[in-house]
Amino acid sequence: MNSTTPAVTKKAPAKKKRKKIIAGDRKKIAARKEKVKPIEKGITTVKATGHRYGGGAPKKIVDLKKVEHLAARGLTIQQIADALDIGLDTLAKRRRETPALVEAIARGQAKGIAIVTNNLFEQSADGNVAASIFYLKNRAGWTEKQIIDSTVAQTTSLTLKFINPND
Description:
Blueprint: H1 23-36, H2 40-49, H3 64-72, H4 77-83, H5 88-97, H6 99-125, H7 129-139
C-alpha cells in the first residue's frame, strides 16, 4: 500500500424530495378515492343477494322449519349447526340477531318432549309396567327407597406377649 492513497469515505444517503402535488394530481387522487367508496347501487345489490361487499362467501340462509324439526329430534345446538352446514359461532350469532330462530329452537324442543311424553303415557296406559314406573318417578315424584337397618357388633381383642431377650 502506498501512503499517498486517499481514504475511502461513505456518502450519506440522499434525502428523498417530496414531490409537489399539482392541481392535476389532486384530481387523480380524488378519482382514486371515489373508486374505493361503495356506490349506492352496489350496496343495494349486496343487501339483496346476501353477499358481503368486497367479496366473501354468501350469507347462508337458515331455514327455521328445518331448525325446528332438528330441535324436535333432540339434537344439540352443535348438532343443529352441523346439520345446517354452518359453524357453531355463526349459529350463535344468528340466534343473537334473530329472535325467530331462538323461538324455532324452543318450539322444536317442546314438540320433541311432547311427542316422547305422549308416547310414554300411551305405553303406560297400555299396560307397560316399566313405562308406568318411569312416568310416575319423573312426573309424580315417586321414588324407590330402601331402608337398611343394620347393627354391627365390634369386639377387639389384643394379646401382647413380652419376650425376654436374655432367655
